[in-house]
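A favour, since you know our structure tokens better than I do. What I am after is a single protein written out in full by you. Could you add the entry underneath, on a fresh line?


***
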Amino acid sequence: MELHAPLSRRARAGDPAARPRTQAGLAVSRDGGRWHLLNASPDLREQIGRTEALHPRDGLRSSPIASVLLTGGDVDAIAGLLTLRERQPFVVRASAQVQAILDRNPIFDVLARDVVERRTVEVGTAFDLEPGLKARLFAVPGKVPLYMERGDGFQPVVVDGTTVGAMIADGERRLAFIPGCAAMTGDLRAMLAGVDLLFFDGTLWRDDEMIAAGLGAKTGRRMGHMSLGGADGSIAALADVPIGRRVALHINNSNPVLLDDSPERAEAEAAGWTIAEDGMEFAL
């Protein structure tokens, strides 16, 4: 959290219109017993502590977390895996590119390989999270994580499985989770048509937001995120796509949409979007 960013100051002061959020993550379950995490943020320990459904239930050591499905190799998607190092069995599913990132960093070997299975998922191919609950990773426009960039030059946006979204389905209803997306394409619009619940990248409201606020030198697209607002933003790009419920998440603390009393929040809500906050529950 930036020391003196205006939104951060309001949140630290206890302003009820500027509620703090932890980093983006989602837990899904078919029966409320076994849970599957979508990404593992650095705030995962705090998120588990606040969520009774994810607490241990049996014996001295246990966890209802059956798996973690990763949609990228950014720090805010994988760092929380280190919180799950208590020799509890679960499965880490990810594309070959993201599994390679974990394999190259020996710190992730604290997830004992004789206990925690790393299962590579083929992008575009459906698989069972558990009986009656299927998942599929699909490529979205994105780029390599910032910490893997070399040099200061332009980093191309690619659609090669480095950045993916996740589709979860129970045979009747579908949930899409896309915390990072650099651009909207016709294929992505078509894929999202008819989903019952969409969680989509809400990092910035405008592309030059961090530059204008003096918080950084990169645009949103340079970081691999399209903006929410504007004529070429995700709200406009998905306005005519039939989607049940739209939720913006993975929101940077420079984004005024976080403020209950901002015009950007009013615009997003008028367009049918919900701004994610901690503790939200959805039933499909």
